[in-house]
Design goal:
The structure is a single chain. The protein has one helix and 48 strands. The chain is an all-beta fold. The chain folds into four domains: 181 residues, Immunoglobulin-like, CATH 2.60.40; 186 residues, no CATH class; 162 residues, no CATH class; 82 residues, Immunoglobulin-like, CATH 2.60.40. The strands form twelve sheets. Strands 29, 30, 31, 32, 33, 34, 35, 36, 37, 38, 39, 40 and 41 form a 13-stranded mixed β-sheet that branches. Strands 4, 7, 8, 11, 12 and 13 form a six-stranded antiparallel β-sheet that branches. It is globular, with a radius of gyration of 29 Å. It starts with 36 loop residues before the first strand and ends with a strand. 42% of the residues are buried.
């Protein structure tokens, strides 16, 4: 059977209660429902959260909250994405005697300080720092041991999804406690790093259900497959999948039909349908760190109507131990899974005889996202909670070990920039009407022109549909990320192919179609030059002087849309359309090769000058450049330069000769910036 897999935008989320709740802000807890109160990290303290169409409501209860010198906070992320650590905002709290680290990038913060005779509250937004008090149209009420607040949705941008965390600390920073959800922080003094949060789909039309705590995930989109995992060790499949339609297994909604939950047979590199998901038979329990495959029907109760998004919740305690997946034969694939309710960093996990690359399926784009530690479309190698992901054995029997220390740092340490003296990358984007794809090349000191451990296979899609595909080849292997040497003597010639694929039954057919091929060289080391050669038209393109190439694909035959095994790379189909020529300048010992990060015109030297002046400027990207000379009356008297230049530092020598002594102005222009500098010519 054909297997198609999906992992939706995974937001660490809760979604259950049946309707909105409107709270009267009066300093009492009488109108809060039981499913709107959340246990915290400190006994005797409770935090509350709910909303209606107009307001977000939160509350804090605990002895002495109304007494003296407490600060209650709620931080709100109004633009969460697939990784809750993404979006705009800040992972740093407002400094209030303590500098806490948030588990997401917060856009807004509400702070309430209780202090005898001088209670204080405000709503702040983040824009290159936490700003002063913002417009606030809600209400605040402090009762006996109970604080409740309303915040108008329009004051925080009327979001459709939010991440939130609520906690309390002493005003002087001497103590921090009462976080919701419960975080594994030690109550007491010091800066705290929070790892858990509450996430919600506001657009769903329902308010939260605290009974689900933080162990839940929203499944959105359309019918299709998802690669998943569970943050609870020994989880019964039917527990996690209760809100989805299941079939063909003991414990499913119906026991007949084709099973829609599979595990990977590592030794056979094939899918095995589950026979039982209810726990009454063997194999019904999930293994921490191991992924599985689910076909999600958008009609989850078989009533003829689409039901997505839905929230899947799990019971039990989050896995706190390390998780391993092993016995992966050299060259074979393993389906691993995030074993925690927190984002993990692929680059931190322990890999034995494994490729440095991983891939996850993005159903929305109907394609794979890859990462090799340096480049790829899986941004920074962050793997969301509940996410299954592929690993590939390389150099022997492979295994992976994931530990709690591999959870992604929300303080930004996971963010990687190019180490200019050892790595670099270039990305290619392929687009045609409604279809798009990407492929990458990275450059590392241990890179190889052939296969190496930082290469990522260009995997066949798990959803067979029409598409465009960009890839490179090494030998018989199709690559999504081709890792190359950072230094090389001579010239490398690489095969690069682009295909327009239509679907005919179970076969992909290469078709003709107009394609726009573009590239991003911002992270390309300055000692490397790339030339694209169209093998069909013989047109050669210097990638540093152009950023797009438009062409029409050719028909080259067909191939099976079903991979050979559970997953596998694309086959070679006919002759590759392009050759990419990679040339290297010779580097000196201990090179410090780097591209400028900003546009700059350096001081002219010497100044005053005679007979010539040296003009030096920096370009961070490929750009058209004009360099002209003006007199003190603003008249253009000399045209020095007008052309498109590569990124890097550029030097121009000006010899006025026939011009009289005097003051002149040099004007350097690019599409984004203009800089003027005064110089003096003395004969």
């Amino acid at each position: 059977m054909r297997i198609n897999v999906f992992i939706s935008t995974l937001i660490f989320s809760i979604l259950s209660a049946t309707s909105y709740t409107t709270i009267t802000i009066d300093g009492t807890s009488g109108d809060w429902e039981s499913d709107e109160d959340f246990s915290t990290s400190t006994s005797g303290w409770t935090n509350y959260l709910t909303w209606d169409e107009s307001y977000l409501y939160f509350a804090v209860s605990g002895s002495s909250i109304d007494d003296d010198d407490k600060v209650a906070f709620i931080y709100i992320d109004t633009d969460p994405n697939a990784s809750p650590i993404g979006g705009t905002g800040s992972t740093s709290s407002i400094s209030w005697a303590r500098d806490h680290t948030l588990p997401f990038t917060a856009n807004y913060a509400f702070a309430y300080k209780t202090q005898s005779g001088s209670d204080y509250y405000n709503l702040r937004t983040y824009s290159s720092g936490w700003q002063a008090d913002q417009t606030y149209n809600g209400s605040v009420s402090l009762g006996t041991d109970f604080l409740e607040v309303s915040i108008k949705w329009s004051d925080i941008g009327s979001p459709t999804q939010i991440n939130v965390i609520i906690f309390v600390q002493n005003n002087d920073g001497s103590w921090t406690w009462s976080s919701a959800p419960e975080n594994t922080i030690s109550d007491g003094a010091g800066d705290k790093t929070f790892s858990k949060w509450l996430g919600y789909n506001i657009a769903s039309g329902v308010a939260p259900d605290a009974a689900q705590d933080a162990n839940s995930v929203i499944i959105s989109g359309n019918s299709g497959f998802r690669m998943m995992s569970s943050p609870v060790a020994g989880q019964i499949y039917s527990d996690l999948l209760a809100e989805l339609w299941t079939q063909g297994m003991t414990g499913a909604d119906v026991t007949d039909g084709t099973a829609n939950v599979w595990t990977l047979n590592v030794s056979g590199q094939s899918w095995t349908a589950l026979s039982d998901i209810s726990g009454s038979g063997s194999g019904a329990s999930q293994t921490a760190g191991t992924g599985f495959l689910v076909y999600v029907f958008d009609d989850t109760n078989w009533d003829g109507a689409a039901d997505l998004p839905v929230s899947l919740s799990v019971s039990g305690t989050e896995n706190s131990s390390s998780a391993s997946l092993g016995s992966i034969a050299d060259g074979a694939y393993g389906l691993a899974g995030n074993p925690y309710a927190s984002t993990i960093d692929w680059d931190l996990v322990t890999k034995t005889n494994l490729s440095a690359s991983t891939s996850v399926w993005d159903d929305a784009a109907s394609g794979w996202k890859s990462w090799n530690g340096s480049s790829g479309s899986l941004t920074n190698g962050l793997i969301a909670p509940y996410q299954g992901f592929w690993v590939t054995a390389s150099g022997g029997t492979g295994s992976i070990t994931i530990e709690t220390a591999d959870k992604a740092s929300s303080s930004g340490t996971f963010y990687r920039t190019m180490d200019n003296d050892s790595t670099g990358s270039v990305s290619f984007t392929i687009s045609s009407n409604d279809y798009s794809d990407q492929t990458f090349m990275s450059f590392m000191n241990n890179g190889d022109a052939g296969l190496d451990k930082a290469d990522a296979h260009k995997l066949m899609p798990l959803d067979a549909s029409s598409r465009v595909v960009g890839l490179s080849y090494t030998g018989e292997t199709a690559l999504d990320i081709h890792n190359l040497p950072f230094q090389y003597e001579g010239l490398l010639s690489l095969s690069l192919d682009v295909m327009f694929l239509s679907l005919d039954g179970t076969n992909f057919v290469t078709a003709t179609g107009e394609i726009n091929l573009s590239w991003d060289l911002d992270q390309l080391p300055s000692h490397i030059e790339l030339t694209l050669i169209d093998n069909l038209t013989t047109i050669e393109t210097d990638l540093s002087l152009n950023n797009t190439y438009t062409f029409t694909t050719e028909s080259k035959g067909s191939f099976s849309a079903v991979p050979d095994g559970a997953v596998g790379p694309y086959p070679i189909v006919g002759a590759p359309r392009f050759t990419l020529s990679v040339s290297y300048d010779v580097l000196e010992s201990n090179p410090q090769i780097s591209l400028p990060t900003d546009f700059a015109l350096h001081p002219v030297y010497p100044n005053p000058f005679n007979p010539s002046a040296t003009i030096k400027f920096d370009l961070p990207t490929v750009s058209p450049v004009s360099l002209n000379v003006y007199n003190v009356n603003g008249q253009e008297i000399k045209f020095l330069l007008q052309e498109t230049l590569k990124p890097g530092s550029h030097t121009y020598t000006w010899e006025p000769q026939s011009l009289p002594s005097g003051v002149y102005f040099l004007k350097l222009l690019t599409p984004s910036k203009t800089v003027t500098q005064k110089v003096t010519f003395v004969k």
